[in-house]
Design a protein that fits this description.
alpha+beta; 3 helices; 4-stranded mixed sheet; about 80 residues
Length: about 80
């Protein structure tokens, strides 16, 4: 997962850091979540969080049954009728 980060001055308050820009996050906030810097251009950074540690759902057992039930419960659109 990638996100853009901005290096704010430490004196900036919550409103300036989170409410003025809704598509760019404070660099320290993303770093605390485990994001790492890929590229830097001035005060803007491209950061990435690796999701390679996600586990595959087993094909048998209680977890597999719960996942199967959850998938069946999803709302599926009906085909268009002419």
């Amino acid at each position: 997962m990638e996100a853009f980060a901005y290096v704010y001055d430490q004196r900036e308050d919550f409103e300036a850091r989170f409410l003025q820009h809704r598509t760019i996050f404070p660099r320290d906030f993303l770093a605390d979540l485990g994001f790492r810097t890929l590229r830097v251009d001035g005060r803007v950074e491209l950061m990435r969080l690796e999701l390679g540690g996600l586990l595959e759902v087993p094909s048998e057992g209680i977890v597999a049954e719960l996942v199967r039930r959850a998938r069946e419960a999803l709302v599926r659109p009906e085909p268009a009728r002419l």
